[in-house]
Amino acid sequence: MAWIQIRLNSTDKKAEKISDYLQEIGAVSVTFVDSQDTPIFEPLPGETRLWGNTDIIALFDAKTDMKQIVNLLKNEGHFSVDSAYKIEQIEDKDWEREWMDNFHPMQFGKRLWICPSWREIPDKNAVNVLLDPGLAFGTGTHPTTALCLEWLDSLDLAGKTVIDFGCGSGILAIAALKLGAKSAVGIDIDPQAITASRNNAEQNGVSERLRLFLSADTPPELKADIVIANILAGPLKELYPVIDSLVKPQGLLGLSGILESQALSVCDTYSQTFFLDPVTEREEWCRITGKLKL
């Protein structure tokens, strides 16, 4: 099926109201995009955070009269004659096939490969994690996930316990288990992440060694030899007391989801109780690792 989309420039204060109206007049989907590429903190449960300068992208059936849509928006006062907008025809293609064709096995460190299930495994003697993109974040394609996977690959995980804080797809916990960890725990605020992590663990044959908890249900006594959290700088600082409490004495910590410009403030927070290694950077993102001082 062919589609047509309109892209409007707006603000965070107006975006949700415009989104509601676009859906009323026939939009099949509406997406908010930061028009200034400004990093934002991860929203709290039930919260929708928008950017200071927001683009709204609305998708319509290709037969829609877009002049009429523009006039309706103007008549409702959602933007003026001078407001910026762009209308584009979306090519009709097999999006699922194109997406599958563009997702390839990826190597991280010396031993670890992340492989989609429909691709041939490049090295059957390597540590291979089968993972298909799905409901939750984390496939290895983002620099922050890659940095975490490479760190795990560099560690001796034999007999260790690992906590994946903000587990998403479960990729880090599953990789740790396949790299030799004794057991792992995944924690997330999103029930879909718990479902995705469980399904991916079953696909990789490690579900019996992985426990999963919604953050509100995390056992108070829970601790691990290694804690890794790939979320964002804001939540990492806000949740410092929680993450710190999860690390066993002399345990290791890995943090990512941090922009280079945010690294110093995160380091300042965690250096209170951790001996930190030099920051590792990639494509404007970075990883912070360290060892508990106690």
From TrEMBL:
InterPro entries to which the protein is assigned, alphabetical: Ribosomal_L11_MeTrfase_PrmA, Ribosomal_PrmA_MeTrfase, SAM-dependent_MTases_sf
GO cellular component terms attached to this protein's record: ribosome
Claim: NADP is one of the keywords in the record: no
SUPFAM superfamilies: S-adenosyl-L-methionine-dependent methyltransferases
EC number(s) reported in the record: 2.1.1.-
Enzyme class name: transferase
Record keywords: Cytoplasm, Methyltransferase, Ribonucleoprotein, Ribosomal protein, S-adenosyl-L-methionine, Transferase
BP GO terms, sorted: methylation
Reaction equations catalysed: L-lysyl-[protein] + 3 S-adenosyl-L-methionine = N(6),N(6),N(6)-trimethyl-L-lysyl-[protein] + 3 S-adenosyl-L-homocysteine + 3 H(+)
Localization in the cell: Cytoplasm
UniProt-recorded Gene Ontology molecular function terms: methyltransferase activity
Keyword Cytoplasm attached: yes
Binding-site list for S-adenosyl-L-methionine: 145, 166, 188, 230
Family, as annotated: Belongs to the methyltransferase superfamily. PrmA family.
Role this protein plays: Methylates ribosomal protein L11.
HAMAP family: Methyltr_PrmA
Name assigned to this protein: Ribosomal protein L11 methyltransferase
Native source organism of the sequence: Seminibacterium arietis
